[in-house]
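A.,

Following up on our hallway conversation. Structure tokens first:
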């Protein structure tokens, strides 16, 4: 198994889990970011320690650059860790593509929430609903109250796009 394939196999389901968890709770477990970073570091190390070191440095730099945004409340701390973890598993050019794809996905997500404030009806729980229905009701409430975006959805989308593109190469 190549390093990239191993990273894809580990990162893809964890990105989906992180997005779902962020939607439901607005929290991303640290273990998700740690597992993605470790798989990425191991995958990059299979290409050589120089590649692994460069990706680790870029992941660290992203963390340092994004941390002030989290400290100001503009980005969640879990989002910063998840973005940085993904960068550890990607080549520098692929990290740039990941950031661009994530920003565009974030724009679509933000637009959906802005439109959703006016378009999503007020939903209520009557008891006995499925987990999906409960999450939908809470998310509709968050939209109307202008709550924070589940930005892991954008990060996961950007990450999955890049992993898909890399699978074709």
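Then the amino acids I'd put at each of the 169 positions:
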């Amino acid at each position: 198994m190549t390093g990239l394939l191993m990273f894809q196999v580990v990162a893809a389901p964890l990105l989906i889990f992180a997005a779902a968890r962020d939607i439901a709770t607005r929290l991303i477990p640290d273990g998700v970011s740690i597992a993605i970073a470790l798989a990425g570091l191991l995958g990059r190390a299979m290409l050589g320690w120089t590649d692994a070191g460069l990706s680790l440095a870029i992941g660290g730099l992203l963390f340092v650059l994004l941390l002030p945004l989290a400290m100001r409340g503009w980005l969640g701390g879990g989002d910063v860790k998840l973005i940085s973890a993904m960068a550890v598993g990607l080549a520098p050019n692929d990290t740039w593509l990941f950031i661009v794809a994530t920003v565009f996905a974030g724009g679509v997500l933000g637009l959906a929430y802005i439109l959703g404030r006016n378009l999503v009806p007020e939903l209520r729980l009557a008891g006995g609903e499925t987990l999906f229905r409960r999450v939908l009701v809470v998310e509709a409430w968050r939209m109307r109250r202008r709550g924070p975006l589940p930005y892991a959805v954008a990060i996961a989308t950007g990450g999955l796009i890049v992993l898909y593109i890399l699978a074709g190469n």
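The CA atoms of residues 45 and 52 lie 5 Å apart. Curious whether your intuition agrees with the design.

B.
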